[in-house]
Amino acid sequence: MKRLALMLGTILLVGASASAKEIIAEPLVAIEPVVVVEEAPQGVSLQDYITKGTVDNKEQNEAIYKRSRANYKGFRAVSVGQEIEYETRNTDPANTLKINTGAKFAYGDNWTYSISGRKDYKNRKGNDSDISLSGEASRIQLGAKRSFAYDNGIKASLGARWRTYSNKDEFFMDPTISYDRYSYWGTFGYKKFDNKIGGEDKFYSESEPLKIALGPFALSYYYEYEKTNGTGNYFFEHQARLSYPLYTGEKLTLTGEYRLGLGKETKGDHETIKGIENDYKFGNRNTLYFYGSYAMTENLDLGAYLGLEAGKWEMAANEGNGKSYYMDYGVTWEYKF
């Protein structure tokens, strides 16, 4: 009996030892905690969510808010902005002030929409108190654009715009293509006049059919063309353009652009005696533009530009020397949501 008990005890001891080794040899698997990604509800402002968000930490609430806005793909407001432009030319009896205000929207990753309104004011030279609306005093514009991106690196877009004035409606298609250092943009439209008010319908085209980036510089060919429907009246102008960086900082960016007039020819109702729409030969229209943008905050961008031009136009013997000087300057702001 003693021998039997001793044998049973030995067997139990060995079995227990083996079980213990098996238990110890089993690796421990860590259980990852479940992370709940907070989302900020749509329609709540950033400041409200920072102070009344789902967590007590304001920095975390701000991060949650921005992530939610970045991930949201439904119809959403993108930005609001305004441009104020002032034009003056020595051969024009009036200066022009243009105020354009608009908003941009988006849907999904590829659709963008825009709405804007502009008013033009004329200021007769020599009488600053005489401010009146111009003939095309106001307009409203609606636009939509679809963007495309392909695996081979080509990016493209196709936009459509409707612009309405008191005396006409304008319809435009705006295609763009870019690949590597090359890009293209164009505008093709039709201007429909109200026959009761007067005016003839016109076909319109404007484009940079080829733009090449050369390091920090960009060289492009530009043209503008308009033809009156049903007649032989038209105008055609083309330019060579060179853009170049002037300064690039953390918040401030300055660029410049030189436009060399390659020539312009007109026929019929586009001709004037003011030297504004007349023909000119190669090199007789030279324009410099300077652009600046400043990131005031993460959401607010400010901009300004200045254009200076000297031209010599083809004139009849009794119409003067055809020389004109032009200045165009403006300021912009855009608030991004």
Structure report:
With 337 residues, this protein is mainly β. The chain has one domain (74-336): monomeric porin ompg (Porin), CATH 2.40.160. It contains three helices and 14 strands. The chain has a 14-stranded antiparallel beta barrel with strand order 1-2-3-4-5-6-7-8-9-10-11-12-13-14. The model is unreliable at 11-26 and 32-37 (pLDDT under 50).
Globally, the shape reads globular
Count of the separate structural domains: 1
Order of helices and strands: HHHEEEEEEEEEEEEEE
- What is the overall number of helices? 3
Which CATH C-level class is it? Mainly Beta
The named CATH superfamily: monomeric porin ompg
| Uncertain residue ranges | 11-26, 32-37
Compact overview of the structure:
The protein is mainly beta and 337 residues long. The chain has helices at 2-25, 46-52, 58-71, and strands at residues 76-89, 94-107, 111-124, 131-149, 155-164, 168-179, 182-193, 202-214, 217-228, 234-248, 252-267, 285-295, 300-312, 323-336. The longest helix is centred in the N-terminal third of the chain and has 24 residues, at 2-25.
Please describe the topology of this protein.
Blueprint: H1 2-25, H2 46-52, H3 58-71, E1 76-89, E2 94-107, E3 111-124, E4 131-149, E5 155-164, E6 168-179, E7 182-193, E8 202-214, E9 217-228, E10 234-248, E11 252-267, E12 285-295, E13 300-312, E14 323-336
Antiparallel strand pairs: 1-2, 1-14, 2-3, 3-4, 4-5, 5-6, 6-7, 7-8, 8-9, 9-10, 10-11, 11-12, 12-13, 13-14
